[in-house]
Amino acid sequence: MTKLVEENALQGALSLAFQHDDEILIEKWLCGPEFTVAIVGEEILPSIRIQPAGTFYDYEAKYLSDETQYFCPAGLEASQEAALQSLVLQAWKALGCTGWGRIDVMLDSDGQFYLLEANTSPGMTSHSLVPMAARQAGMSFSQLVVRILELAD
């Protein structure tokens, strides 16, 4: 991943990207915090704010760094949390998702939430994000697992 700060760095970034693949993706830089929201059935669990130590929430930040911080509750105002949960549920349904999973979102400096991705097979270890949100909602790990099994087709 490369973040461009100045337009004159575009050629170098493109050259670097094309060394790895013949297709690349260029996206608008979103400069706000990242959130993840778990869904179990139709229940939206409390959002989690993700704060990596570096610029990107990448493999190293997720799995190797002890400096990445996770905040649940996320610290949003009630109206923002409600808007985020509504957006996440709309996206979940629009994608045809069922069961359980997570939707990742960023809040840009303009105050707008942007959808990043849907994760229909999130981690389920004791330190994974869905169990963290479930704990915040008053659900034990065992209760979460039973609920997921009940949702299985």
TrEMBL record:
Transmembrane segments: none annotated. One of its GO terms (biological process) is cell wall organization. Its cofactor is Mn(2+); Mg(2+). The lineage of its organism: Bacteria, Pseudomonadati, Pseudomonadota, Gammaproteobacteria, Enterobacterales. It catalyses: 2 D-alanine + ATP = D-alanyl-D-alanine + ADP + phosphate + H(+). Cell wall formation. One of its GO terms (molecular function) is ATP binding. This is D-alanine--D-alanine ligase. It is found in: Cytoplasm. Its EC number is 6.3.2.4. The keyword Magnesium applies. Residues 21-150 form the ATP-grasp domain. Belongs to the D-alanine--D-alanine ligase family. It comes from Salmonella enterica I. The keyword ATP-binding applies. It comes from the Bacteria. GO terms for cellular component: cytosol. Keywords: ATP-binding, Cell shape, Cell wall biogenesis/degradation, Cytoplasm, Ligase, Magnesium, Manganese, Metal-binding, Nucleotide-binding, Peptidoglycan synthesis.
